[in-house]
Amino acid sequence: MREVLARLLSAVDAGQPVAYSALVETRGSTPQKAGAAMLVFPDGSQTGTLGGGCVEAEVKRQALALLDGGTTELLSFQLDSDYGWDDGLICGGRMQMLVDPIRPGDDITWYRRLQNVVETGAGCTQAVVVDTEKAGLPAGMQLLFDRDGNLLAQRGGAGDLSNVIAALRPLSERPRPYVQGGVSYLPQLTRCRLVIVGAGHVGQAVANLAVDVGFDVEVVDDREEYCSPERLPRVERRIIGPIDDVLPELEITSDTFCIIVTRGHNHDEQALYHLATTDARYVGMIGSKRKIKLIFDDLRRDGIAEEHLARVHAPIGFDIGSQTVPEIAVSIVAELIAYRNLPQLQPENIVRRPLLQKTTD
Question: What is the pLDDT of residues 199-251, one digit of tens each?
């Protein structure tokens, strides 16, 4: 979505027309799920995808026609023999698409505000009217709400929004797209920040994988050669310096996840000393049960309360029989995803095993 919106705004600012299309409702088996978005340009090029195949080709054809003078439309497709995959497979589901043609001079406040919220990672909900009779609002009308349910912008109509607002689901519950009362709700979930203390082999592998699944990643290490753009090109921030200097100055909020994967026992203990008492949503540390016990005993002597240590996930990672660094990274990121996506998840439901002992990086 970030790429789609950036490309849309740059095209409009350059005086180029573009059609924004979004998958707003699915039923049954479909090649793509609600929330997918695609731009279509006058030359037939595109950014993003609605799932490929004949449906995407037909959406593109109709989007190009709308660019010549049409207005916002909703398109429906039944994935039968007419809209199967090119190789003959038939999903059998139903897809409904919004196509919104945008031309130079049009008011694009709605898209600018959407991009601003998506870029900041604050979270929002897009609402699209898909059934006029049920919603009592114009079909194709778009509404944008912030994470607290406040209306930020609307496009393509007006009317009583009380029922739309009443059906909003809290982003804290990380809802999936849903349709209620003739309105499709497309949540853009709040992005979570992941602080990785340690830029060695495990830290690097976790960072790369965590970026792919939507975390804003920051990496802390005292070694410039490890915490470098060459090794960590996609993270939001690389912080180089001693743990005892960096972590006390780092802002840690309730949306922050922290993992400790440094090169040694002492560095792990230093990091946990500073992170265990923060408001972080998740604090985890890699290591054997014996090492974890020793560190916890030291921190108790240093005055860290038991209630803070009880919040620490150690060892981290789901038990998938990890043997290699990439496998360990998968197990760790899987646990992070679970705690991000399933707020009701309780620590006692997690089955863990000690991960491999680390060697010095």
Answer: 999 999 999 999 999 899 999 999 999 999 999 999 999 999 999 999 999 99
Assigned token pair, 93: 């589901």
CA distances (Å), 127 to each of 114, 178, 188, in order?
12, 10, 11
- Residue pLDDT, tens place only, 260-288: 999 989 999 999 999 999 999 999 999 88
Give the span between the Cα atoms of 299 and 272, in whole angstroms: 8
- How far is Cα 226 from Cα 220, in angstroms, rounded to an integer? 10
Q: Tell me which amino acid residue 30 is.
A: T
Amino acid, res. 325: V
* β-bridge partners, 179: 184
Determine the Cα–Cα distance for residues 235 and 233; give it in Å rounded to an integer. 6
Token pair listed for 269: 């203990």
Tell me if 137 sits within 8 A of 157, measured CB to CB: yes
Over the stretch 133-148, which tens digit does the pLDDT of each residue have? 999 999 999 999 999 9
CA dihedral 170, 172, 177, 182 (to 10 degrees): 0
Rounded to 5 degrees, φ, ψ at 269 are -65, -40
Residue 72 to residue 47: CA distance in whole angstroms: 19
Instruction: Report the candidate in 249, 301, 242, 238 with the shortest Cα–Cα distance to residue 275.
Output: 249
Q: How far apart are CA 8 and CA 313, in angstroms?
A: 42
Contact in structure between 180 and 24 (CB atoms under 8 Å): no
Residues 23 and 83: their CA atoms lie apart, in Å, by 15
Neighbours of 118 (CB within 10 A): 19
- As beta bridge partners, residue 22 has 37, 98
Q: How far apart are CA 123 and CA 117, in angstroms?
A: 6
As given in the structure block, the two tokens for residue 295 are 């560190």
> How many angstroms separate the CA atoms of 323 and 314, rounded?
18
pTM higher than 0.85 for the full model? no
Q: Are strands 151-155 and 178-180 parallel, antiparallel or unpaired?
A: unpaired
How many CB atoms are closer than 10 A to CB 275? 24
